[in-house]
């Protein structure tokens, strides 16, 4: 062969690979040894059309089953099967574009070890979750505060709805603090790319499911953070969004076809009413608007009835778990999904990761309404496989009225009692995620009128009631604010920026009230880590009397007595009145103050005070 001809061939081959930068493949990679081995590749050309949907893959163990073309000829979908014996490597895919043939490489990796033991472990009642908005927690790398090419170039900590600069490095820098609170699990609001024009700090308008937002870091940094958590014996939760995408997502700006999101003649927002989904007298039109209406003008509603879009979402969830070693999943805006699709997606994930646990955002009003969307004991036509929910009922109709309303037959702490008593509707109440506040709710400290003792009572309830406790970053140091008009519910954690005068990580500049509340969370959070009764024990509660509510967490090894006085006067405690649980014990040690009480004697608890008592024989 002449030298000149050889050079031309090499150059031509190089051009095939070089042009691959104009081709995107989703999922961006896969793994050998996965149960999910029938994969649908969505291949996108960013600058040219495909001449045909004919592709070839010549890789041992991979079979092309079918290809699909779309009205938008920039896309092809390819169904492949990866045989069990297939080895890892770069899979070469040959495509036919109008400009000629092109070869691209698609990575196939060996899967990570430890499914169910080192990752995908599930999040249970033994855990304590910390919910963090990464942009508002700590700025560990100022070089990524603004990223050239992204639409939102805001960076102003004085504007609550601009970017503030927090990132994954900031979280990693402060893992000692987080773990020191007794926290076992981190949940971040979504950190995938949100290349929107404004309001990108929350993360729920995803524009690329396969990219970590560069303002937070990158794949490697997120993977490193996951590894560090697991080395500490901690876990990581993925905030998945089945329901919508951001309006600047490539599947909205340049969709394969027009039916990948729900289209209406004019903009139609969801009615935010879950009731038509189970209402025996409901209308189809109300149900359709609930499920198919857009959550917001900038959040197109995913058409989960489109099998290609459904595959895209399901595969991305599995990819994200395997790629980053996820342990649990929080599911955003769960009630707005096509529920049959949600069941199918949940099942696909559980088939691949048998110990994986889910909890859905079910922001509704009514215990039965909430139970409908989780695994339940109700005789209804639709049966959800969702294992758990964020327990907004215990928040709205439980701990908030308990600490803000005068006691009555159906007011005050009686409402907490009634709400918890309805747990018979749920398959596993111990999997419910408890909260005092989150990124969408007012700070609890503001809700209770900035009353420090009530905030402390809220935390004592959170860490002793049945279920999985969830802290919202900064509430342990009395961060405050309502949703409107200032948006302070998403304020920066004090000390997360070098210029901060107050530092909650070190205690610098903090008030005595802030320190004492932080100390309470730290002490009770760490006590809970070693408390079998609080982590996995049973619960028993007594009917509240005159504002005094007493409940127990117990197992064969430990008994914890929780006494909540929500009245404005001190109350007598006669331990003998609770003999179903106190018999055989002679003393009680206050977990927070470490004071001991003789359970043979009556005592009094001050007004607006809560005790967590470990009973001793």
UniProtKB/TrEMBL annotation:
Any matching Pfam family: Alpha-amylase
Highest taxon above the source species: Bacteria
Keywords assigned: Glycosidase, Hydrolase, Signal
Molecular functions per Gene Ontology: hydrolase activity, acting on glycosyl bonds
Signal peptide: 1-20
Glycosyl hydrolase family 13 catalytic domain span: 131-528
An example Gene Ontology biological process: carbohydrate metabolic process
Protein name: Alpha-amylase
Species whose genome carries this gene: Flavobacterium aquariorum
